[in-house]
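If your schedule permits, I should be very grateful for your opinion on a structural question. I would ask you to consider whether the tokens describe a fold that such a sequence might reasonably adopt. Thank you for your consideration; the sequence and its tokens are set out here.
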Amino acid sequence: MTKLEEHLEGIVNIFHQYSVRTGNPDTLSKGELKKMMAKELVNLIENAKDKATVDETFQGLDANQDDQVSFQEFISLVARVLKASHENTHKE
């Protein structure tokens, strides 16, 4: 696999590492999202461990309002974090 393919597979693997913990193994509950953000995105999302940040992020991702974040909904978070990370590289 190419480096990009490895990184993309890594995103899928991280999602499933957290999504299989409770309930539907293909969606993130708010608790699973909170754990994932606190461990995996703590350096990229300001206040990633803060309850209000998690609540706001979860509400923003849960487009169909089913109290779960699907992989499709999750990738919008990944895209936002990647965009911000890219913009930060130009500030340094």
